[in-house]
Design a protein that fits this description.
This protein is 43% helix and 14% strand.
């Protein structure tokens, strides 16, 4: 089983969007039984549901989701997951500090040809661009994992 944890700042916008997009891609590929997919925040708004802007984008793209409770990334998560996929440099740096290593820590768009940060729509209010970038990153991540396992 491949255990993936998506990470952003508050665990209500980007990491939840990535979690549900990736779950949908994995399900459509017939691989759901092979994956554990969750999300966390480095400074989570613990207990909060998905941001309405994220829900809107998931709905527009027919991506299923359920009631989400924002969770804080904790040191103990390191043993639970095979990889942690952050949305920006701050998320990656926060994970490296928390875990004391950069092993298992990645930035989502590094799996694409566009190795940039995914801007936080909490501030930009542009959930469309966020969705497009996360979708591309999740597709590239799944392809990377599939090629690696061959």
């Amino acid at each position: 089983m491949i255990k993936v944890c998506f990470v952003c700042q508050g665990n209500i916008c980007r990491s939840t969007m990535a979690e549900y997009i990736f779950k949908d891609l994995v399900k459509k590929a017939g691989l759901s039984k092979d994956f554990l997919i969750e999300s966390r925040g480095v400074a989570a708004d613990v207990g909060s549901d998905i941001h309405p802007g994220t829900k809107k984008m998931l709905d527009l793209n027919n991506i299923p989701y359920d009631r989400h409770y924002a969770r804080q990334l904790v040191e103990e998560d390191y043993e639970k997951f095979d990889c942690f996929v952050g949305m920006d440099n701050y998320n990656v740096l926060s994970m490296k500090r928390l875990f004391g290593t950069d092993k298992k820590v990645y930035k989502l768009l590094d799996f694409t040809k566009k190795t940039k940060e995914i801007d936080d729509p909490w501030y930009t209010h542009n959930f469309n661009i966020t969705y497009e970038e996360i979708d591309k990153g999740c597709r590239a991540l799944l392809e990377y994992i599939r090629c690696k396992d061959k």
